[in-house]
Amino acid sequence: MTPKNLALALIDGQSNEAFQMLETLYSNQTTVASIYQNYVTKAMQEIGRMWEEDEITVADEHLATSTCDFVLAKFHSIVDKKPLTNSSKKAMFFSVEKEQHSLGMKMAAHVFEQQGWNVRFMGANLPLSYAVEAAQRFSPDVIGISLTIIHHLDQLKEYVDALESINSHPQIIVGSRLLSSYDLLKYASPKTKMVSDFEELQTWMTELEEVKMHEYH
Ligand code: B12
After folding, report:
1. Is 70 exceeded by the pLDDT of residue 179?
2. What does DSSP assign to residue 147?
3. 80-135: pLDDT as tens digits
């Protein structure tokens, strides 16, 4: 299976076929982080290229995106997850106001849930005041913010400053395709963690777990 085969199944709205591709990789011991990074992300990038080069229409791209969203939810339901407990750490995810891209953040949220975190996924386009209010109620340990379009970058600092100062002092992580070409730390704070791929996210989460174990013993 290649990302191109997955892209073609998504463009054709073949959710069963696309799901089976992910399931086969998973049963062949490919890690979920690698499936998300090396197949799903690459397939969506290929769909973006085909759209840009007029090989597919806007309607094809929209069908591919909604099929991908459905397949991700179905795949997440069959993946092994550590159980939730009263001491599970909490994380919430959203993208900044006007930002409609959400698939990367959804996969990040899934990785946290698979590791036994208590997760609230708030989707795309969340205005700052609502994000702050929701974070004050939920008291998350981690807040994942997503951003794709460069014109939305100016808002990032405001989000980071407001959210880092709520009572639970969450660790903010920012995921964005812009990380490959821009220094986003200028729009955040020195404490903000920038994550551009899921394997890096997985490594960071394992390190967090090790720190937690160390503190416990
Ligand atoms: C699907 C898609 C859409 C869908 C999104 C639907 C949805 N529910 O997400 C819709 C149709 C809404 C859309 C709209 C638009 N889009 Co669009 N879209 C895409 C496309 C084809 C795929 C995006 C995607 O899902 N990629 C896969 C994900 C997994 O990758 P990712 O988002 O880069 O995320 C990675 C990391 O950043 C990280 N990550 C992301 N978020 C988070 C969060 C956390 C916490 C963590 C840890 C990690 C993380 O995870 C991924 C791992 O590598 C891309 C093409 C591409 N190359 O990506 C264009 C693309 C992003 N879109 C683009 C554009 C221009 C637009 C529009 C302006 C088009 C228009 N004229 O209307 C609008 C803007 C809407 C808005 N206001 O936000 C451009 C952006 C170019 C630029 N210079 O900024 C792209 C690159 C296409 C192109 N080549 O021109 N789009």
Report:
1. yes
2. -
3. 999 999 999 999 999 999 999 999 999 999 999 999 999 999 999 999 999 999 99
Q: What per-residue confidence (pLDDT) applies to 210? A: 78
- Tokens representing 123? 């989707």
Mean pLDDT, to the nearest integer, of 192-199? 94
CATH number for the region 3-78 comes to 1.10.1240.10
Which residue among 35, 114, 177 has the greatest number of ligand 1 atoms within 8 angstroms of its CB, and so is best to mutate?
A: 177
Q: Does the pLDDT of residue 211 top 80, yes or no?
A: no
Q: Which atom of ligand 1 approaches the CA of 47 most closely? A: 21
Atom number, ligand 1, closest to the C-alpha of residue 98 = 77
Q: How far is the CA of 91 from the centre of ligand 1 (A)?
A: 22
* Site of tokens 């969506």: 44
Protein residues with CB under 6 Å of any ligand 1 atom = 37, 41, 44-45, 47-48, 51-52, 61-62, 65, 93, 98-105, 108, 144, 146, 148-150, 173, 175-177, 195-198, 201
Nearest residue CA, atom 54 of ligand 1?
A: 48
Contact 171, 142 (CB under 8 A): yes
CATH of domain 90-216: 3.40.50.280
Cα angle value 32/37/41 (rounded, 5°): 125
Banded model confidence at residue 213, pLDDT cuts 50, 70, 90? low
Sign of the CA dihedral running 152, 178, 202, 7: positive
User: CA-CA distance, 184 to 152, in Å (whole number)?
Assistant: 12
Domain boundaries, the chain: 3-78, 90-216
